[in-house]
Amino acid sequence: MKFDLHNLKGKKISDLQLEDTVFGIEPNRGVVRQAILAELTNMRQGTHSTKNRALVRGGGKKPFKQKGRGGARAGTIRSPLWRGGGTVFGPEPHVYKHKLPKKISLLARKSILSEKVKSNELFVVEDLNVKSPKTADFYTILKELKFEKKKITILVSAHDRNLDLAVRNLRNVYLVDSRKASAYDLIDCNLLIVEKSSIDILTNLLSVN
């Protein structure tokens, strides 16, 4: 399919040929949901923890004699029944890991890219080589393009220090390496700005059967 290629001023400079098998498929929303949930699950640290009876400090000595007090017996002051005691069945550190089949991951990303094309949320530029690392200068570019109020994900093919510094302080702009872009990176934005070289990378990565 033909798609417009722009410069950083928003002017169309030529037509770009997009691969229909990557940018023109019928989106599979069920697969997209499955991929997003798997990626969000894998982001969890799993470091939540509470101290059980064995980990709480103190309680080595029997607090009072077994019989004769008229009350319930007790073997430790760190019983879960006592204040300051251990937690029963509390959360413990464990790994949240969900391995997603490769075909589902590929289909999800292709579905998201195709949906972005249909929704006019894909903007392809010739290159993103900015001359200045100043955030104000890059914000001016976004303002001229009328993108300043959108949540933007920028896909780049190589690290550019000026661009990295320019977008670092913009809360609504995220810079992502196109080789490592996940389904969540692609969908979590109102606008996807992609370099021409990144289009080639995405096509090569997602065309694999």
Whole-number radius of gyration? 27 Å
Please give the CATH class of the largest domain.
Alpha Beta
| Total domain count | 2
CATH superfamily of the largest domain: Ribosomal protein L4/L1
Q: Can you count the helices?
A: 7
Query: Can you give the helix content as a percent range?
Result: 25-40%
Structural topology:
Elements: E1 2-6, E2 12-17, H1 20-23, H2 29-43, H3 102-118, E3 122-125, H4 135-145, E4 152-156, H5 161-167, E5 173-177, H6 183-187, E6 191-195, H7 196-206
Parallel strand pairs: 1-3, 3-6, 4-5, 4-6
Antiparallel strand pairs: 1-2
In words, what does this structure look like?
The chain has a six-stranded mixed beta sheet with strand order 2-1-3-6-4-5. The chain has two domains: 2-26 and 98-206, Ribosomal Protein L4, Chain: A, CATH 3.40.1370.10; 45-95, no CATH class. By secondary structure, it is of the alpha/beta class. The chain is elongated and about 95 Å long. The model has no long low-confidence stretch (mean pLDDT 91). Helix 4 packs across helix 5. The protein contains seven helices and six strands, in the order ββαααβαβαβαβα.
Structural features:
209 residues; 6-stranded mixed β-sheet; alpha/beta; 7 helices; 2 domains
In short:
With 209 residues, the chain is α/β, with parallel strands linked by helices. It has helices at 20-23, 29-43, 102-118, 135-145, 161-167, 183-187, 196-206; strands at 2-6, 12-17, 122-125, 152-156, 173-177, 191-195.
